[in-house]
Amino acid sequence: MTTPPFVPGLELSRRFYSEAVRPLLDEAVPGIAHSAARLGSGSEVLGFDTARSADHEWGPRLQLLLHPQDVTRHGPTIKKLLSARLPKTFHGYPTHFAATAEADIRIMQATDGPVHHRVDITDAGTWFTEQLGFDPGQDITALDWLATPTQRLAEVTAGAVFHDGLGRLAPARAHLAWYPHDIWLHLLACQWQRIAREEAFVGRCGEVGDELGSAVVAGRLVRDLMRLCLLMDRRYPPYGKWLGSAFARTPQADALTPVLTASLAATDWHTREHHLARAYETVAAAHNRLGLTDPVDPTTRPYHSRPFQVLHAERFAAALTARITDPAVRTLPPTGTVDQFIDSTDALSEPQWARSVIRATTHAPEP
Predict the structure, then answer these.
(1) Burial, 3: exposed, middle or buried (Cβ in 10 Å; 0-12, 13-18, 19+)?
(2) Average pLDDT, the chain
(3) What is the SS3 assignment for 307?
(4) Which has the least CB within 10 A, 142, 185, 190, 347?
(5) CA 130 to centroid of chain Cα atoms
(6) What are phi and psi of 65, to 5 degrees?
(7) What is the DSSP string of 68-128?
(8) Helix (H) or strand (E) holding 34
(9) pLDDT band at residue 73 using 50, 70 and 90 as cut-offs
C-alpha cells in the first residue's frame, strides 16, 4: 500500500466527519441531534503528530456523541451502518483499525470485509466521566481539579469540535479551559515548593562526589521548571513525550532552553548549578511580571550556611499562598494536582485511582 501524503490528524478527522460519517448518519437517522469531535488521547489532539504517528491509534477517527437515550436506541444501528458503508480508505488512509497484541491498541489496516471503524459512539456525560472522572456539565469541585492529570485536561480542551448539535462540548470545554484563580495560585505554589525541596541537592550530591546523583536531581529540577513555565503561561503541561514540545511554545522558552540544556549537559556540579541558577532567576523574573503577588527578590543566594547557590523557591510558594482568598483552597496540602506528586503512568491513567489518592491527601469525603 502506497503511503499517502501526511495530513495532520485533526484535519483528516474533520474531513472524515463531514465527507464520510455525516452523510451516513443523516441517512441512518435523519436529523438526529449529535456532536462530533476529535478529543482525548492521541498526538494529533495536541497538534504534535507527524507521519510517525500513523503507526498506531492514528487515522480517520472521531467521537460521535448522542443523547443517552439515542445511544441506546440508535447507537447499534449507526455503528453497524458505518461498519458496512464507510469507504475502505479515506484520503488514502484505511478506515479499518485492526487489533494488535496490545489489547487497547489498534492500527490502520486494509480490509475487504466490514470496517472496524474508530467512530466512538457514546453520550457526553459518559465520555467525559471516562476521560476525567467527572462530568463538567455538573459543578466542578476542587477535588475534580486536583484529581485530574494535566495531560487529561489538555486532551479534553485541545483537539477540535466539528459539530456541537447537543450544545454540550462548547460549554464543557469553556469550563475546563483553565483552573479557577485560587486553584491556579495553589498549583503554582505547589510547583515552586517542589523546586524548593530539591534545589540544594545538585550541589550536595556533587560535593560528596556523586555527579550522577547530582545530574539526576538537575534533570528533575529542569522538568519542574518546564512544567512551572507552562502553568505560569496558563497551559496544561502534557506528559513526558510532549513536555519539551509544549514548553517550546511558552514565552520563556527562547531564554531558558539554552540554559536548561547546558545544565543537563554539564559534567560537573559547579557548572550544572551555575546554569540552574540562571534558570531560576529567569523564571523568578517571569513570576514577578505576572503580578500575581508583590515582587519577590529573583536573585539566587547561598543555601543557609552551605555553599550551594539556590533561589529559596519556597519564598514564591509562600507569596502565592498568601494571595489565595478561599480558605478551603488555602489550607490544602502543598502537593497540588495528582500529577504534581505522582509520576506513574499506570496510576495517572485510571481516573478513579487518582480521585482516591486526592481524597486521601485532602481528606475529602467519599461521594
Answers:
(1) exposed
(2) 95
(3) strand
(4) 347
(5) 15
(6) -105, 135
(7) HHHHHHHHHHHHHHHHHHS-SEETTEES-EEE-SSTT-EEE---SS-----EEEEEHHHHH
(8) strand 34-38
(9) very high
Instruction: Write out the H or E segment, with its range, that includes residue 246.
Output: helix 240-247
Q: How crowded is the C-beta side of 187, counted as CA atoms within 13 Å?
A: 30
Reading the block at residue 163, the C-alpha cell is: 459539530
Handedness of CA 177, 181, 183, 186 (dihedral sign): positive
DSSP string, 168-198: -HHHHHHHTSS--HHHHHHHHHHHHHHHHHH
Q: What angle do CA 192, 198, 200 make, to 5 degrees?
A: 115
21 residue type, one letter: V
The pTM (predicted TM-score) of the whole model is: 0.94
Locus of grid cell 495530513: 7
59 and 92 in contact (C-beta within 8 Å)? no
Place of cell 445511544: 71
Q: How far apart are CA 113 and CA 93, in angstroms?
A: 16
Each residue's pLDDT tens digit, 329-346: 999 999 999 999 999 999
311 SS3 class: coil
Residues 6+ apart with CB under 8 A from 70: 29, 32, 33, 34, 123
What pLDDT is recorded for position 104?
82
139 three-state secondary structure? coil
From residue 306, give the alpha-carbon distance in Å to each of 158, 274, 309, 317.
45, 15, 9, 22
Could you tell me which of 329, 206, 331 has the C-alpha nearest to residue 268?
A: 206
β-strands 97-99, 306-310 pairing: unpaired
Calculate the alpha carbon distances from 323 to 109, 189, 257, 346, 362 in Å: 55, 10, 30, 35, 20
129-155 exposure pattern, b = at least 16 Cβ within 10 A, e = fewer: bebbbbbbeeebebbbbbbbbbbbbbb
- How does strand 306-310 pair with strand 301-303? antiparallel
What is the number of residues in the chain? 367
Taking only the tens place, the pLDDT of each residue in 161-170 is: 999 999 999 9
